């Protein structure tokens, strides 16, 4: 959603820049209509380029790389998470026996008590803590990516606000000049 909003902000900023360029062109036409002298000045003055409107400090918009990396990492881990989540995986006894056997074989046996049931509980707790740790690290990277993206869009909004305020003043001045004609 933030990426979509960033793209919308970028398009809005480009439209404001286009309006500013159009306003400058209309100002030239008003000067030509207003007096002969304004027409002569505009005739000898270099015409503004007909290309893209200037961006006035607005770089091309790309979603934050930190956010992109976090989203990619999160999507990669999503299937693993769904497979290991107790409420999302199938709970038949054969899977649980395999899961317990896998746990027992994957963890060092001397780090746990000698009692089989107690050892199985300790291993299950360690596995759950590992899953919680990976989930929290995933959330942390997403949160940091979101924070960076929000800060960048906040800067874009500040720039856009200044441009719109300037454009509003210029439109009012141009409107006043047209009414005087």
UniProtKB/TrEMBL annotation:
It comes from the Eukaryota. It is a peripheral membrane protein. Residues 143-177 form a coiled coil. Keywords: Coiled coil. SUPFAM superfamilies: SNARE fusion complex. Residues 71-94 are annotated as: Disordered. GO terms for cellular component: autophagosome membrane; ciliary membrane; presynapse; SNARE complex. Forms a SNARE complex, composed of VAMP8, SNAP29 and STX17, involved in fusion of autophagosome with lysosome. Interacts with multiple syntaxins including STX6. Interacts with EIPR1. Interacts with STX17; this interaction is increased in the absence of TMEM39A. Belongs to the SNAP-25 family. SNAREs, soluble N-ethylmaleimide-sensitive factor-attachment protein receptors, are essential proteins for fusion of cellular membranes. SNAREs localized on opposing membranes assemble to form a trans-SNARE complex, an extended, parallel four alpha-helical bundle that drives membrane fusion. SNAP29 is a SNARE involved in autophagy through the direct control of autophagosome membrane fusion with the lysososome membrane. Also plays a role in ciliogenesis by regulating membrane fusions. This is Synaptosomal-associated protein 29. It comes from Certhia brachydactyla.
């Amino acid at each position: 959603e933030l990426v979509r909003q960033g793209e919308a902000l970028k398009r809005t900023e480009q439209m404001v820049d286009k309006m500013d360029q159009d306003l400058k062109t209309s100002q030239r036409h008003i000067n030509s209509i207003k007096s002969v002298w304004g027409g002569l000045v505009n005739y000898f003055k270099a015409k503004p380029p007909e290309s893209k409107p200037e961006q006035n400090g607005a770089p091309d918009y790309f979603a934050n790389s930190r956010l992109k990396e976090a989203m990619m990492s999160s999507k990669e881990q999503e299937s693993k998470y769904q497979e290991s989540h107790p409420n999302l995986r199938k709970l038949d006894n054969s899977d649980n026996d395999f899961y317990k056997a896998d746990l027992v074989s994957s963890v060092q046996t001397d780090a746990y008590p000698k009692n089989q049931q107690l050892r199985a509980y300790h291993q299950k707790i360690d596995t759950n803590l590992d899953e919680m740790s990976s989930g929290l690290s995933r959330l942390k990277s997403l949160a940091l990516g979101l924070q960076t993206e929000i800060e960048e869009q906040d800067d874009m909004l500040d720039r856009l606000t200044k441009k719109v305020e300037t454009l509003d003043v210029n439109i009012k001045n141009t409107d006043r000049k047209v009414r005087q004609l």
